[in-house]
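Morning!

This is the sequence you dropped in the shared folder:
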Amino acid sequence: VPRQLEGPTNIGGRSNAIAIDPINSNVMLTGSCFGGIFRTSDGGANWNPIFDDNELLGISEITFEPGNSNVIYVGTGDRNITGFPSIGDGLYRSTDAGQTWNYLGLKDTRIISRIAVDPNDVNRIYVATMGLPMARTNDRGLYRSTDGGVTWTNILFLADEAGIIDLVMDPVNTQTLYATGWDRLRTSQQSIVSGPNAGIYKSTDGGDNWTKLSGGLPGAGYTGSRVSISIDANDNNRLVACYVGS
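The structure's back. Tokens below.
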């Protein structure tokens, strides 16, 4: 199959996030690990930067609000946490399709890996974070807001060296959430890429309570690395997981 580079070509590092406007597929946004966000409105023929006024330009996640593509959420920092990690300063939201941005906090989490907005209540927002990779801190895990980002509560904390690297919401029952843990530190003294917190965690009550899944998954004593997940949009009982070994 012929392939064609659609761009943009002048970004800083790997592309971490791509979001396609669900109403107009010619509108796409892409975010890179060091280069901010670029937007196209003509299917990739031309691109323009829309986040360059911000101080920290590492981007891991771009999410449209369900039902309103003028509202865009952006999570800063580089979730891949390489040997030279790019950190961010929290969560941003635009209500005018990316022309201007409002800051929603979570600065100390430093790396936002995933964002999920409840289509039944868009004021209910979930943000997965990895924390500052250079130090053990409690500012990591999964956060929830029920007031549109005014206040935040940590609803899933694993450890001061582990964060939440992936997150999916059940498209049928939005109270059901799946999150994955990753033990990851990268300092001048050590590099941790695996640990006991790796795995899949499930909540059926909007994040109030969590259970670590088993039943065929790596079990007791497993000290694995990064775990990614995806849920079938046509079959909410089908969850696919990719485990990286230690």
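Headline: The mean pLDDT is 93.

More detail when I'm at my desk.
O.
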